[in-house]
TrEMBL record:
Domain STAS: 11-132
Keywords: Membrane, Transmembrane, Transmembrane helix
TM helices/strands, residue ranges: 138-155, 176-200, 263-282, 288-307
Lineage: unclassified sequences, metagenomes, ecological metagenomes
PANTHER family per the UniProt record, alphabetical: ABC TRANSPORTER PERMEASE (PTHR30188:SF3), ABC TRANSPORTER PERMEASE PROTEIN-RELATED (PTHR30188)
Membrane listed as a keyword: yes
Protein name: STAS domain-containing protein
GO cellular component: ATP-binding cassette (ABC) transporter complex
GO molecular function ontology, one term from the record: phospholipid transporter activity
Family annotation (Pfam families): MlaE, STAS
Record carries keyword Membrane: yes
Amino acid sequence: MRKLKEPKFCQYEVSESDEGGITLHCRDRIDSSNAAYMIKELSPLLQNRLPSSLTVDLENVTYLDDFGVLVLVELKKIVTNGKGHFYLKNSSDKVKKILSLLNFDSLEGRVSFTKKRPPGIFIRLGEATLRHSSDLKYLVSFVGSVCLSLIYICSHPKSLRTDDTLLCMQKTGIDALPIVGLISFLLGLIMAFMASIQLQQFGANIYVASLVSLSMVRELGPIMTAIIVAGRSGSAFAAEIGTMRISEEVDALFTMGFDPTRFLVVPKVIASVIVVPLLTLFSDVFAILGGLVVGVFMLDITANAYITQTIETLELFDVFWGLLKSG
């Protein structure tokens, strides 16, 4: 037996047999205090020699923890990668218990990954159908609860939380006015510019006012306003109620005898029904102003002529039809 190394942190001896095998005799403790040092010292030795086998003698090891098991795993991996064999011998009952607890025999095993075949289009379609069908019952239940709460509010007006309704009206309406005005103004600007390119060929510049006013008041104004309110205020309401759900505030309302739908949802619904038509009116006005800018600066139409053409084109039915859609 030829002694090669005995570091100060961990007592061990390395001996090499004539057949090219190496035996590692460990003593005392193999734990977190010396695991890194042992890996650093033994890894180059095994990688350079590439032994046909490595036998670790644990007879004199008094303590072994998960860091010590990590040392054994690293040594086993180095040897097995070099086509060698790894053996443990003379393990005490305590060491065997730790090795069994950490499932040492399978720690160094390579996990075989099999490529999972993606599901076909019909499978995905069926899964989506089943998922949405399952969600439909919750949607129906929620809509029914909101309708019943609205009926109760109509029969008991004093039960409506007025302060929360006014606050929701401010968040949904007043706070959303800048973004609604900006988008509507740019939309009217773009529509007027695109229409002017074609109408100029026929000398029908004045009808740019008619096109912008009719399309915004009847169709695009309600649609754009609803999209903005749904994306801005709707997502904020959903996030607020979702946060209350996670923090168990909704359950607290149940415990205190409050109806969460009547307490949380109805003020937001009433505020949206009142505010969205008003936002639609502002959207129509800003879009007409955007078309006015194009008409005045690009088509040489006076502001008076543009406004007059807009008034002559629109009827009260068009305005109320757009408000009905937005409501």
